[in-house]
Each structure stands twice: as C-alpha cells, then as structure tokens.
Amino acid sequence: MITEDIIRLLNIFAPYKLNENDHSGLQIGSFKKRINKVLLALDITQDVLNEAIENGTDLIITHHPLFYESFNNINNDTAKGKLISSIVKNDISVYTAHSNLDISPGGINDKLAKLLNIKNPEIIKEMLVKKLYKIVVFVPSKHAEGLREVISKKGAGWIGNYSHCTFNVEGIGTFMPRENTNPYIGKKDKLEKVREVRIETIVTEDILDDVISTMIKKHPYEEVAYDIYPVINKTKVYGIGCIGNVQPTKLKDFARKVKKNLDCGNVKVYGKMDKTIESVAVCGGKGSDLINIVYDKGADAYITGDIRPEDAKKALDLGLNLIDANYYNTEKIILPVIKQFLESETNNLEISVSEFDNIAPFSII
C-alpha cells in the first residue's frame, strides 16, 4: 500500500474537499511512498517524532497541521526547522486532516456526542452544503456485490453516519448487440435477456464524477446502463459542533460524566451545579466563538475546550452553563476512531496511536 491509497481512504472518512484552506493534506513526503507503519497523533512534536523514528513509522497522520503558515526557509537552528529536517532525513511522510475532520460525519463532534450519550444530535453551525445525486445502475446479478463495494469505497452511499447504503431490485434486462459491438454477454443481432440487479445509491456532487468513472471501469458491460438524478428534497450539510438531548441530569453530575467518558484529569464548570440540564451542545477544540449560537439554539449546557474568561462571563450572563474539558481532551478521542476505520479498510498495515496522545501535554499541580 502506498501513501495515496491511504489518503484515498481518509478522504472517504474525512474528505479533503471539506477543509477550509487550512493546510490539510500531504505536508511532507511522496504520494507513491510504500507504507507499512502508520502513527496517529494530534500534533507532531519532538516526542511524537522520536516515537515514530524508533518504531520505523512510514507515515504520521495528524489532526493539526505541521505548517500553519508559509515560510521562506528551513532553519535547523530553530525547533521547527530541526523537526522538519529530521522528518525528511528519516523519510517519514506527514498527512494532516484538520477542519475536514472537524465537520465530517463521524468526525470529532459526532464522536463527542456519542461518548456523552447525546441523542438526536444536530449541527450547531452549518459550514458547507452540498448537492446530492442518486445513481441508478443495472448490472448482471453475479457482479452486483463487487460493483456495490467499489462505488461504496469511493464514497457513494453515505447517509449520516451510515456507509454502503444502497437499494437493490432484481429484474430482467434486455438488449440486442449490433454492428461494431463486443458484448460481454450475447451475440450480434440476437435479443438477450439477462437477470440483472438495479442498484440505487446516493452520492455528493464533489465525488460524482469519480464514482461514475470507477463504476464504469468495474462494470462488465461494454455499454453501461445507468441514470443520474438530482435529489432536490435533501442536501448534504456539513458543520461544526452538535447539539442534542440527554436524560435530565444535574450539571455537576453531567460534568462528572464528561470527566470520566473523555478521560479528563479534570474539567472546569461554569454555572449552577444543581441546575438540571437536558439540551447539551458540544464542540471539539476551542469553541468559544459558538456561544451565542449555542444559546440561541436553546442549549442548557455547552461542552468545549479552552474557554476564555471573557467568554465564560458572557455565557453566564446569558444563563448558559459551560463545561471546559480542555482543547486536547475534546479532540484526542478521534484518534482511535481513525485507527479503527483504517484497520477495517486495510490489510497488513500496522497502525498505532502515539503514546504521547494518551495523556494531556501538561500537568496539574
């Protein structure tokens, strides 16, 4: 397996096209490099790099970019320059999924909602809306499973957090090969009747051409019969954060749940500890900028990280309770999810989460 194969899989989980021009993608290395060992981390630090070198890692996948800004030189006398030079010297590739991982279905915020048992989660702030299309293709029954699999791997068939969503109906297809044809089944000027499956699935506009191209290549027929329909009753919405419902509970008890389920050393709680909460919002990372939107959506409590004092005061004035679980703790939860996804899609690829992402990079005294 080479780098671009792994990137293709990551683009199914967290499509690159969802990023907000924030330096996601391949930052160091080659798309053609052979990959045997992958290390997952939130950031590349010297400790993470040392771990990668010691373990013979070929590719480091991070959430936060190594490069946030453009630069004119690499100075080995600086910490960043030394880090970059060491990465290149040890032939390690670096790939980043940043904002695209934040807003992807099944990404950071969906995982937070799942860990905290938030029901019926909805997006807090819409960031991107994509058109949906329905693809219908007709294929001989014995080839249906293989065709479904390849288009699903290209990203077709996602509905919410469910992948491989298709509808299938068997029937009889008819055709008659004419001049200058080379039919997979049948003979020239003879009407053929073939048991076929009608496969229906859904796809977003950004991957439509790629899915169609892959489908045609995999299909056994010389001329593929397929239809594309615009879906006007629904669009694919991507956004930051989520809000939903929990069983009525006191703020202090829910804060304890956050501390336990996110494996935090501690959490900061702003608000009345005995207040009963039912509507809860979450946003991984630093989500202070969403406080007004969260309040307008009727949340009783908001869980995020690194809340600024002035934002905490604003929330309390609004009557919105806050739980600060730390920027790091609200994001580290996605690394095992990526590991599980890649392991389910690959064979003979060694994937690990950096041991330096198991604990926060600071101590509390």
Summarize the structure.
The chain has helices spanning 3-13, 46-55, 79-89, 99-103, 108-115, 144-153, 208-218, 251-261, 291-296, 309-318, 335-345; strands spanning 25-28, 37-41, 59-62, 93-96, 119-140, 166-175, 192-204, 226-250, 268-270, 276-286, 301-305, 321-324, 350-353.
H-E order? HEEHEHEHHEHEEHEHEEHEHEHE
CATH topology grouping of the largest domain: Udp-n-acetylmuramoylalanyl-d-glutamate--2,6- Diaminopimelate Ligase, Chain: A, domain 1
Question: Number of domains in the coordinates?
Answer: 3
Per CATH, which architecture of the largest domain? 3-Layer(aba) Sandwich
Strand order of the largest sheet: 6-7-5-8-10-11-12-9
Describe what you observe in this structure:
With 365 residues, the chain is of the alpha/beta class. It is 28% helix and 31% strand. The chain has helices spanning 3-13, 46-55, 79-89, 99-103, 108-115, 144-153, 208-218, 251-261, 291-296, 309-318, 335-345; strands at residues 25-28, 37-41, 59-62, 93-96, 119-140, 166-175, 192-204, 226-250, 268-270, 276-286, 301-305, 321-324, 350-353. The chain has an 8-stranded mixed beta sheet with strand order 6-7-5-8-10-11-12-9, with helices on both faces. A 5-stranded mixed beta sheet has the order 1-4-3-2-13, with helices on both faces. α1 (3-13) crosses α11 (335-345) and α6 packs antiparallel against α7 (208-218). It is globular, with a radius of gyration of 24 Å.
